[in-house]
Amino acid sequence: MIPKIQDLINQAQDRYLASDELGLMESYVNSLPERLKLYKLIRDREIEILQAVADQVPSELPNVTEADLETGVKNLILVLRYSSMAMLLNDENFLKQRLLNWLEGIMSMRDMRRLNETLYKLLNQGLRQQVSPVQLALIQPLITAAQVTLIY
């Protein structure tokens, strides 16, 4: 499930875990309640969060078409869902393997850079209002990884 933890377990099949290895496992276990809480919050408020983003786009980008906005929001939904799962698992590779390679390919077919910049800016603003700073620190690096892939 969690690659780093799996690696520790595999390495320690014939020995006890060293202090630094136990520290890594303990750090993840200690962060799990907050990760679960954040995952549930995003799951339960996904529509509210993303609707607020979609509603603000036309005022920021008056010339955006409905079709482009719909495509951008659908992609943002996937990013938020996969980022949430990667955060829960503490596994950025999950996000890269499952989502980013695919999104990078489809996004290169259309020029949606400006729309994506706006969507991510608004998503980040919304998350700052909806989640605690500790929770934001858990999810933000993953959303940033997606943002960097899609915009640059």
From TrEMBL:
Keyword Cytoplasm tagged: no
Signal peptide (from-to): none
UniProt keyword list: Bile pigment, Chromophore
GO BP term, pick one: photosynthesis
UniProt xrefs under InterPro entries: Globin-like_sf (IPR009050), Phycobilisome_asu/bsu (IPR012128), Phycobilisome_asu/bsu_sf (IPR038719)
Annotated GO CC locations: phycobilisome
Tagged with keyword Lipid metabolism: no
Family: Belongs to the phycobiliprotein family.
Protein name per its UniProtKB record: Phycobilisome protein
Source organism per UniProt: Pseudanabaena catenata USMAC16
